[in-house]
Design goal:
The protein is α/β, with parallel strands linked by helices. Helix content is about 30%, strand content about 15%. The protein has one domain. It comes from Hyphomicrobium nitrativorans NL23.
């Protein structure tokens, strides 16, 4: 199990204090995300629940580099956005959007009032692209998108995921670019062939055994046929310091540390692709341990298929007690765009992974980011 380094250091310092050695207990330097010369233009994203919403937001904001996405138990881009959100500042955005997020983008109880309105969401997306706040829509249309809803999911009901499918169709996606799986009796969870709780269960760590390898299905749909998975990952799970990527950003609700899985070949010489896997609510390391990182199967498929898997970590806060990714505006009203706090931070991470090998700090990534960001 991955234990956050901050927890390990705290335990050591408490022990030192008990023995009278607290003065010598200083915070050790945390390891940085490695620079690997990865192919940033072959990046893909996936996520479950709030992570599904974030995967869609990241894909649409940065479609110049993202080639595919997996929306697992999530709805359409911008679903929670109120028509009045752009007039609000600070926490007011989240308070305004939250009822719609729960009732209209998870439970679908607002369907009689036309929520989610995928026509309006598609128009909003085009408007953001025309304003330069997300990449042009044309970059999206050759992406491949996998969507999934478990038939026993009562948290984000299947009709909401179907709305996401309809949204992509309205943007102009052809049928062959989309896959919608809805016939597996899963609860609200990431699905595996052999790991986790019983298939129909919804509960921590939100990983269930349905005799279906979802990681394989996701990566195959996005990248095409895969080489066989390894039974035991042969690379390294790197726990890295996320804080250098926070520069200039406050109120981001992200943990100090994230994890990246780096196959040995990717560390040594191979130019590898990047897959970003966004956990769901109450599924980060702080809430559910390392199950999402080690039991979903992404690392097993990464070794033979030249993939670095990035597992960024969101944190909890009073506005976000379950450690969700921001899909209703608690980090600010720009949460859907390239200026969003969490999207900016994770984009900086993949920029750094794409830097030439040997640059072991985040400085190069942040310098490169300045060309893409607008201050």
């Amino acid at each position: 199990m991955i234990v956050p380094a901050i927890v390990r250091r705290t335990a050591v310092c408490l022990a030192a204090a008990a023995l009278g050695f607290a003065a010598g207990c200083t915070e050790e330097k945390r390891p940085g995300l490695p620079a690997l010369g990865a192919d940033i233009e072959a990046t893909s994203v996936s996520g479950i629940s709030s992570g599904a919403y974030m995967a869609g937001q990241f894909q649409i904001a940065h479609s110049k580099v993202v080639i595919g996405a997996a929306i697992i138990a999530g709805g359409p881009y911008g679903c929670a956005q109120s028509v009045f959100s752009d007039m609000m500042m600070g926490p007011g955005v989240a308070f305004l959007n939250m009822p719609k997020a729960i009732n209209g983008c998870m439970l679908n109880t607002l369907a009689p009032w036309g929520v989610p309105d995928v026509d309006r969401l598609a128009r909003k997306t085009r408007s953001l692209a025309e304003a330069g706040r997300i990449d042009p829509i044309e970059n999206l249309l050759d992406d491949r998108v996998y969507l999934f809803s478990g038939s026993n999911d009562r948290t984000v009901v299947p009709s909401i995921v179907k709305a996401a499918f309809d949204y992509y169709k309205l943007l102009g996606f052809s049928d062959d670019r989309l896959a919608f799986v809805s016939d597996i009796p899963a609860g609200h969870a990431f699905v595996t062939a052999s790991e986790g709780l019983s298939c129909e269960v919804t509960g921590k760590p939100y990983i269930v055994d349905c005799d279906y390898d979802q990681a394989e299905a996701v990566l195959t749909h996005i990248y095409g046929p895969l080489k066989p998975r390894t039974e035991t990952p042969g690379g390294t799970f790197v726990t890295f310091d996320q804080r250098p990527f926070f520069r200039g950003i406050a109120g981001h609700d992200m943990e100090d540390e994230g994890v990246a899985y780096v196959p040995a070949d990717c560390a040594a010489s191979t130019t590898c692709r990047i897959h970003i896997a966004f956990h769901g609510c109450a599924q980060n390391i702080a809430a559910s341990g390392d199950a999402f990182i080690r039991e979903t199967g992404y690392a097993n498929w990464a070794d033979a298929n030249a993939l670095v898997v990035l597992f960024p970590q969101a944190s909890s806060s009073p506005m976000n007690p379950q450690g969700c990714w921001d899909w209703w505006g608690f980090t600010g009203r720009d949460y859907l765009t390239q200026d969003a706090a969490q999207i900016t931070i994770v984009f900086r991470m993949i920029q750094h992974l794409a830097q030439p090998r040997g640059r072991g700090t985040a400085g190069a990534a942040l310098s490169a980011a300045s060309e893409h960001e607008r201050g």
